[in-house]
Amino acid sequence: MPRLQPVYLLAMPNALLLDIAAPAEALRIANHQQDEIRFALHYVGTQPSVATSIGLCVSPLDVLPDSVPDDAWVVVTGTVEKALPVQTFRDGMPPDIAPAPLPDAEAQAIAWLRRIVRPTHQLICICTGALLAARAGLLDALACTTHHGSCDALRTLAPGARVADNRLYVRDGNVWTSAGVTTGLDLMLTLIADATSPVCAAAVARQMVVYARRAGADPQLSPWLEGRNHLHPALHRVQDAIAAEPAHDWTLAAMADIACTSERHVTRLFREHAGVAPVDYLHRLRIALAREMLGNSQLDLEHIAQRAGFGSSRHLRRVWHKFDTLPPSRARGSAG
């Protein structure tokens, strides 16, 4: 049976709809890409229905539950000051009226976050959702970010926080914050990769036709996601196959067979769309696999080399130094 991962998504009045829909859609797709974890979404709010940034209403919402499971993800989405005015008429009736936000909705949400969020939870703030978390005192002394237009406001609300500009997202312990709008999807892809596997996250990204990006100070992308920011289906087939079995005895001919093309052309596809030669792409994933085993197992380097697809520890070391100036021994116990 798959393990359930509860996700509580807080939707406030004037919620930015993309902050809700994009991460939720990524989780939906992730549920269909693997069988180990099922993301169970719970939509919560200060009232049963709220109007979003573009006038559409989100309902039904569970009104601020008294408790959430210890392992839950709590997602706080952003809002806009001025929502798109929308009026609809049906059968000559007066226009629909969006549910009016409660006057103390923000205060209720702040009190709820302050009461609910624990170190066992993952607190995920998308866009200006970080401002609500700051008002709840949940970002004190933490590194964080938000929409570039709200960084100064975040500094005012959380003077003890280390607010980073020009970041797609920031993690500090169990607290994640992201910049504006679409970066919530970048953040969710990272969370999906951590919870399931980088291969699953890459499949979700491909399904949504979006790939993880980096801002100047962001950590390096996972090797499993690098080189996937393209739309060439044949190359994606090859990359999927390599990612599924990086230790397989991959030859250029085998890659060409999967791509249904020639060896020369598959080399051209890798260079043009992934920016690397086929062997370098393969080595990158094998080194990533070796790094994970170094961090999460007690296997000696010789066994790790064999399981990662290298002929020997000597071969592993030689390839390793193309990607890292530090020796493999420094990666022991440091995965994640």
UniProtKB/TrEMBL annotation:
Signal peptide extent: none
SUPFAM superfamilies the record matches: Class I glutamine amidotransferase-like, Homeodomain-like
Alphabetic keyword roster: Transcription, Transcription regulation
Keyword Nucleus part of the UniProt annotation: no
UniProt GO molecular function: DNA-binding transcription factor activity; sequence-specific DNA binding
UniProt keyword rRNA processing, yes or no: no
HTH araC/xylS-type domain: residues covered: 236-334
A Pfam short name: HTH_18
Cited PROSITE patterns: HTH_ARAC_FAMILY_2
Descriptive protein name: AraC family transcriptional regulator
Species annotation: Pandoraea oxalativorans
